[in-house]
Structures are given as C-alpha cells and as structure tokens.
Fold each of these.
Amino acid sequence: MEFLLFTFVGVVHLLSLSSGKSIYKNDISRRTFQEIKEEIASYGDVAKAIIDLAVYGKAQNRSYERLALLVDTVGPRPSGSRSLEKAIQIMYQNLREDGLENVHLEPVKIPHWERGEESAVMLEPRIHRMAILGLGSSIGTPPEGITAEVLVVTSFEELQRRAPEARGKIVVYNQPYVNYSTTVQYRVQGAVEAAKVGALASLIRSVASFSIYSPHTGIQEYQDGVPKIPTACITVEDAEMMSRMASRGNRIVIQLKMGAKNYPDADSFNTVAEIIGSKYPEQVVLVSGHLDSWDVGQGAMDDGGGAFISWEALSLIKDLGLRPKRTLRLVLWTAEEQGGVGAFQYYLLHQANISNYSLVMESDLGTFLPSGLQFTGSDKARAIVEEVMRLLQPVNVTRVFRAGEGTDINFWIQAGVPA
C-alpha cells in the first residue's frame, strides 16, 4: 500500500487529469495522449527510486513506526475528545519537524458524543448478558433503562409488514451481510425506521462479514420529525440466536441501559502540509486520511494507516529531493467517523478554487497488500492513470479498478474532480 501511494503521487503531479472541471489553460492541456504517455514512461527511474526508498531503503517501515508511536501514546481519538486534539497537535509538530512546507491547522467545528456506561441483558427466555456498542450520536436511555419485548426482523421491508407488532418494543435487526455499503444502511437508518413504527429502541446486527462475538460501532443518523430512540450494535451471534428464538415462538425480553450523551460541537482542525509545486503551484494533488477514530480501539487501521502513508508520500518525495510540478497537499481530516464533518467544512472553504484540484486521493480501506487503485474520473483521466500505474510493474501492482471514493473526498468527486 505504501509504495503504491508513494509512486503514484510521485508521478501524477506531472500529468493533466482532465475531468471536465480541472482543465488548465497551459501547454499541458493541449498535449496529445501519445506525448503524455511518453512523458510518463520517462519517469521510470523516478518511480524506481521511490519504490526502492520505500520498500528497501532507509524509509522501510518508517510509516509503521511513526503510526505505532502515535497510537501507543494517544490511543483512541473520538470526535470532540481531548485525545483527538492532542493527536492533531502532535501531528502538526511532526509535519513541521519533517521539513514539509506550509504546515498549518484549519479550524472546524465537530460533533462531541460520548457513549457512557452501557449494557444489554436478555431476561427472557433466559438470562444472558449481551455485548453491545452504542452507535455514534445515539441518545441514552433513562437511568433505569428500557425493558421491553423484542421484535426480530431481517429487513426494513419486514419491519414495515410487521409495523403493528413493533410499537412499544425493541426492534432487533438480523439483516444478512451483503457487502458493507449495502448492509451499513441498517446501522445508519435502523433507529429512524424503528422509531417510525413506534419502537422504543433498536439493536442492529454488527455490519461484519464474520464475528468472534465482537460488536462494531459506527455512526447512525436521526431524522427531523422522527422521535429519537436509543440504538446500539449487537454481535452477529446474538442476532442469530434471537432470530432462532423468535422463529420458535419464544418471547424475548431485553433490558437496555445506555448512558450516551451528545454535547455542543467542539473546536477541532484539519491538519495540512505541502510540497509546493515548481511550475503550477496553484494546482493541487491532494492525498489524505483521517486522524479521528472511535473510542473502542486505537484507530490504527481506521484510519491511522491511511493517514500515515499519506504523510509518508510527502516524506519520500522530500527525502529524494524531488520537486513536483504541482503542489502536493496532505490533509489529515478530523471527524470523518461522524460523516466527513471536517472534510465537508474544508470543501466549503476551498470549493471556490475547485478548478485547481487535479486529483484527490484518500486511503481509508485499511493498509493491506496492494493490488491497484480504485479510480473515478473521465475516460481520458482513466487512460492517464493506467499509464502511471505501468510504472509499478516492478512490484506487480498495476490494476486500475472502478469506483474510487471516500467519505472525505466524495464532495470533490460529486463536483467532477478525479479521485
């Protein structure tokens, strides 16, 4: 993953990625595709130098060590927390000490939610203490909790069919896992749909392809005009068990207690650093990841890895003494887990200059063995990216997939910027 991102950003600043939005009035935009191909191919030695430094040279494992130090020192970094702001200040200092240019913090307002103490106990048909994780922005229960019978459903459609049964109950969703983007809708919208039919709370089967009795947290969204009810995720195992119990006609009763609280929006920052372009400094290639995480893990994969390899991309180019034609900008987003809150405010601040953005990149799928890049853009832009990826033949990572996207860069994608 590291050398994939490093090599790509190390060469892509040489190109004109026409998207319908980012078209420049300079000689590059008028070049033929053959001329662009030839220039890309001429950077084989540059690509090899980046790969060698990242994979075999003194920078080997550097991003891992940097990440380990931050997560071991700071720990979880939930939106609105002191630990997130401590991490931002540490990264600001790190980027300055790394010798990057124009290092600065851009202020934003972000949500502040804390889960508090939480528990769920099955009282009927047997006593069973369940593992749960409250979902982001959920309200809490009364101090005495909510004790109610359960209605188990496998889809929103089934919930609608059985709406008269849902009033005054706790709705348990045991939706099958299809893929993340499809199945996550139950986590995001489950509370609203349950509240519409009079439910007192909702419990959602964790959005996971498999489970070792591990509930997953994440953001959920309330809707204006719909009562807010407490909502949490439960394990795959418990959702399946209650589904079996319900199919046998067992009466299921749960006592749910959640101490979750929402506080006023907090002050935070997007963290920015650059290598300024030599020929077109006003034009930007943006690489990014997010610094915030949920409170129940260190955020090493989601999204510490993506943030730190994005930093490492700039570090390698600086270490090699390279100066891109366009400005290479690193942004470490804040409050991504709350729906890209920091990134949206960045977009509002910078959208007036949207024609200057050549390409936006985000790494937020985990740092695993790389197989290629996901890309969204015009056919001409895709053809250029495919030529750039040929430079990664030495490490056999040359594929260009469809549907490049990311919570923090989707605002730019919708406006037509290649991603």
Amino acid sequence: MMELDLMYPSCDSLDSDDEYEKFIRRMNPPRVVIDNESCARATVVRVDSANKYGILLEVVQALTDLNLIIIKAYITSDGGWVMDVFNVTDHEGKKIRDEASIKSIVDCIRKSLGADFSFRPSRRRSVDFAPSSDYTSIELTGTDRPGLLSEVSAVLTDLKCNVVTAEIWTHNNRAAAVMQVTDEVTGAAITDPEKLSRIKALLCNVLEGNNKTRGAKTAISKGVTHTERRLHQMMFADRDYQRTGQNLVDETMRPKVSVVNCYDKDYSVVTIQCKDRPKLLFDTICTLTDMQYVVFHANADGEGPEAYQEYYIRHIDGFPVNSEAERERIVQCLEAAIERRVSEGLKLELCTNDRVGLLSDVTRIFRENSLTVTRAEVSTKGGKAINTFYVRDATGNQVDAKIIDAIRQAIGQTVLQVKEVSRSPPQESPTRFLFSGLFKSRSFCNFGLTKSYS
C-alpha cells in the first residue's frame, strides 16, 4: 500500500489538487467489505479508501440514508488512507443478511466515494429555491414562534402550492425547514419567475415576524441537496447554537461535551456523552465538518441507552484548538447538533389521503388549540399523506388530554395517533478516552481491521 502524507489545505487550494486526488483514487479504489461473522449482534461494514476532506461524513450519511443504526464506529485516517469500521443493524436491532440490502450498502458507499466526488461545505441560508423537474425545493430559516408552520403552510396553500415532503426543525428560538412543493395546476415544479418571487417575498414576511434584527433573507440555489444535511448547515449558519436569556434549559438534559488538547500528538480530543438515538453520529460529524475540522481518529459506542463519542481532530488548517473561545464554540455547536433532532412531549402521527391544503388545515387546528410544532416530518406515498408532528403547549405547560381529544375529533380519530415522547437525564459516567493506548502504540493502520467486534 502506498503511504501518502497529505496535509489538509484550505477549501480554495483543494481545487488545484483535484486532479491529483482523482489520480490517487483511481490507483486506490475504495474497498467496502460486509462481515456478518465477526460480531454476534451487528453487521460489520469496513471501508478502506484514499483520504479526502469530508469522506467520513459521506460514508456515515450513506449508512444513515439506508436507515441503518450505527451502534459502534471505529475511525482512523492517519495520513493519506482511511480505514473505518461500522457496526450496524436495522431498526429492529437485527443484522443485515439479505443479499439485496448488502449490495445496496456496498453500492451506496462506493457511490459516495466516487472519483468525481468533491465535498464543499455550503453556507446558503434563509429562503432558497432548488430547481427540479418534479418539485421546487424551498429552504426557510427564521425566528420560531407558535403557529409559524401554520402560517407558512397557509401562504403556500393560498398560492396554489402543494407540499409533497417537508422537514422542519426548531432549536433555541430558531426554525429551519426544507420543503418540496409542486404547482397545484401542473403537478410539477414551479417555473414561473413571478410566482417564485411572490412566494419568496410572502414567506420572508412570515418568517421575519416582529424580529427585525434576525429576519429572513432570500437566495436562489442551483442544486438539490440532502435534506437533513441542509438543515444542519442552515441552523449552523443561522447561529442557533447561541443560547439567549429566553432559553430555559434543564442542565440535567444537556449533552456533556468536552474539548481538551492532546499536546504530545498535537490533536484536540472531543468527547460526547448523551442519550443515544438514531442518527446521532451523523449529526455530530455534520457539525464538525461544517466547522471545518478534520477527524483523524474516532470511536463511537451507542449500544446502551447512553452514547459515547470521542474524536481526535484538528482544524482544516492543521492546528488543534488553540483558544478558550474556540473550545467553547465547539462545545456549543455540538450541543446544538445533538439537541436539534431531540423532541419532547407528544408525537402525533397522521396518515390519510393526501390533498392540497392538508398541511395547512392540520397545523391550523394545532394553532387554534394552542399547540406549537417543535419538529415535523411530512411525506406523501402512493397518494397517502404520512406526517409526524412533535408538539407542545404554546404556554410551556403539559398538553391537556382534552385538547388532544378535541384535535383528534376535528382531524379524525382513526387518522391521527398519539404517542408520548419522554427524555431522561444522562446517567453519570466517567469520560472514556478509548484511544489512549492506541496513541502510545502508534498502531493506527491496523486499528479495527483485524479485531472481532462483538
């Protein structure tokens, strides 16, 4: 194996090295191995590839998009080569055994690591349109408030737009959404420039509300992007990690994040302890990548109710964390990345025949009954609307059961199901520096490739 000592230049200088990187990938094509024998409880996915900036995020994103649960991960990318190991299961906690699913894993990872791939973090924000022949993608960021989703949905309905899919996140009084809409008349993407301009103007007015200091802006994009990836980028760019005096945070519920420097190896060590949940690894790696940090080694363990993650990082300029302000910003941003997808209170699941204006009608009923939506996932399949809403009382009190009964009667008892969502505080546990022996032995290259994980 050819050993390369590649530095991590700025994004601008990456362009000049593009042809060289493509040559290296052609000489050393990615290798993906699926192993169902080494671990008793999970399928082991091993990925070897020439290194490049953003490669870890691409692999984790591919596994997440396949709806796989990553229960353990071992990452090493010392120099010019990446060797990653992931222990994964399906959502029922079972191994991946059928040939079609295994082939899909291999194909998706190889595609994500293709020779033409070039990662560039984006900083687009506010209201954004991405053209597509099937739908128009609208991206929104603004100040969160009760009834915001209802107002946005009402504007789209009045403008004869049908919401096909949507995902909405709220955090620290900020809101972000990625919505795919079609024209009610044509059933296709909206192409009329005047209509697009009117949609953008009206949505900006709604998002801006009474907050003139952090109001929404408009922008036009030329590419369709990964929904959850964009939501992280949008909220990070919107600085949702900055806590204000209005944020009432239960300290026992906050994730535990620490950053210390490993001076003898010139790395910064980031450790995370929080309640485990699906897509946690994806969320934290998204933020480290958006902040332009390179993960050289990492270990993630999510087999129990608590998740532990440990990253050995440097900034893309090659330096570890060198100030208290930078350390504090990493902590805040990782806390935000973990909290954005976490929801409390009630989970309402809606399944009914899809129609134009359905989202507007349902969210209007929520608003009229003093419920605010903290997160939502909207989709349509085969003419059916399959929507999930996480709601809480607009005043901060526990949702009254009588209000839920009234909402179910208005929407339909059989089409709206109610589930309770609870959060428990993290358990006390010592921080685990799982790589300390590894750095002493300097055995980076073999880590995770010959050991059986069980």
